Amino acid sequence: MRYKTMTAVAALVLSAPAAFAGGADDDTLAIDGQEMVTKTTAPAHMEETGIDTIMSGWHFREDDTQSMQMDTFDNPGMIFVDQAMDAWNTVEGNAEKSCASCHEGPESMEGVRAVYPKWNEEAGEVRTLAMQINDCRETQMEAEPYKYDSAPMAAMEALISVQSRGMKVDVAIDGPAADTWEQGKDLYYTRTGQLELSCANCHEDNYGNYIRADHLSQGQINGFPTYRLKNARLNTAHGRFKGCVRDTRAETYAPGSPEFVALELYVASRGNGLSVEAPAVRN
Amino acid sequence: MASGVKPRVKVPSSASAGEAVTIKTLISHPMESGQRKDGDGNTIPRSIINRFTCDYNGKNIIDVTMEPAISTNPYFEFMATVPEAGEFQFTWYDDDGSVYEEAKAVSV
User: Between 2.40.160.20, 1.10.3720.10, 2.60.40.10, 3.30.70.100, what CATH number should domain B6-34+45-106 receive?
Assistant: First the structure.
């Protein structure tokens, strides 16, 4: 009798992880048949974090959400890529140029997303994709810059990112970018807000667990800008950072601020080796 | 007036006679419900796609009435049998009177 009870308890314990869908799953992501790297060995600089396998946030989402990303037509984020395609060819600003005037087709942006944020020697700073887009708009096109985390900016980032889809993230963290990277790392481990949570508390110590109803991922940004089902639009990495910091009940940094740029570089470097998935679909 | 409306359709380009094929359609549209108010408290007028139809060689396959609760960028996926080669015609009807059309030919 006693033995039976024990077996029952053991069975319950064993079935619990499946019932609550904890952790990452083992599915394979192929977008239109093109296979993505969604799990790989962590980059060398993450040795002290205790994470040996880095995983795309895709693994932490439900099957329905996952399948939306597996087909370009089903991916609602592609609507915004189409919109950005129109913007790409639209002449704006006093220089009477469009993106296409200098860069021709968006295919010329292949590989760009994988290496950003990147040190810009001329400007003497680490630049995100968004900063580079606005620099083009201001200097080359003499047009109004986009608001950093606005819809047209997210769409343009998505258009540029999709050219690199499937390529491995490979941001440089050494050389002149090292200082910014260190600053980003400090921010990652700094507790903020009334809840005194750092990025690491959720995304390093507790990925796979639930924080109330939310399934915590490793906080990778290889899929950004990301289409979120909750707001039916593209969300930028800085928009997401802001949301996370706000959730710790802190005053947040502004999207586009030097702090978030540094954080983006650091977080992106934690995903070195994963495929660029943008625009990903998340909940 | 809805802006940035763009219909998209995915249909296999060929099928065997009598085969049921999966058709996916998506139209980008804000689907303004008419329930929201702007910053000054004025109601934002309703502007949605109220009807979607699909015909095959002139014969109606599906006819959908949409209501304000349908979310932005309505997506429809359905199956249709292809009896012979022909063309799918898709039509979306907007509240503002606009009609958006798309067609896809299928060979057998």
Answer: 2.60.40.10
